[in-house]
Amino acid sequence: MSHATGARPAIRPGTPAHAPVAAVLFDRDGTLVEDVPYNGDPDLVRPVPGAREALGLLRAEGVATGVVSNQSGIGRGLLTDAEVRRVNARADALLGGLGVWVYCPHLPDDGCACRKPRPGLVLEAARRLGVAPRDCVVIGDIAADVLAARAAGARSVLVPNAATRPEEVEAAPCTARDLLTAVRLVLAAARGGRS
Question: How far, in Å, CA of 114 to CA of 132, rounded?
């Protein structure tokens, strides 16, 4: 279902090949779990294919993980904060546990600093994990994920799905056909710089 025909390099042009990867931050809906719009029901959480394996690879390499997610359903009055936390907890349990979950409850027009494509979620997740944003890679399914990474000084991998526009794929510095491939690209790039 991907619009991508192949994968672009995991490291942006101009980024040193030896750049370390201390943490991988994932978008939630459409990236780690199947997208259920404004989901407040933990029973509807379904990990995307390869998600558990991808996280297992990162854990085996000692790479921290986290989730950065826009949850405007709270601001729209469609979800409560408690419902989002329950959905996150269910996803966390199904995926074997991630290091940190950070989400923005605001409406798109609220002008907050956290909502992707702004850098706030990425910066906060990096802070909580104790890593530099430049040592993070954000994996997501739309341009807002890529732009948030760039704004925070992090790297990114776009994993297109049915919601991803073709122009977002073209503009992304790095793409992968699925989540597991994205994580393998990130780890291969990180290993490539080790001596």
Answer: 17
Rounded Cα distance between 76 and 64, Å, is 32
In the chain (195 residues long), the average pLDDT of successive 10-residue segments reads 41 47 98 97 98 97 98 97 98 97 97 97 98 97 98 97 95 96 94 58
Predicted local distance difference test score (pLDDT) of residue 192:
76
Query: Which amino acid would we find at residue 92?
Result: D
Give the pLDDT confidence score for residue 99 in this predicted structure.
97
* CA dihedral angle for residue 91, residue 93, residue 97, residue 98, rounded to 10 degrees: 20
**CB hemisphere CA count around 10 (13 angstroms):** 26
Query: Which sequence positions are flagged as catalytic?
Result: 27, 29
pTM: 0.90
Nearest 5 degrees, angle CA 173-CA 179-CA 184?
75
**Rounded Cα gap, residues 75 and 26, in angstroms:** 22
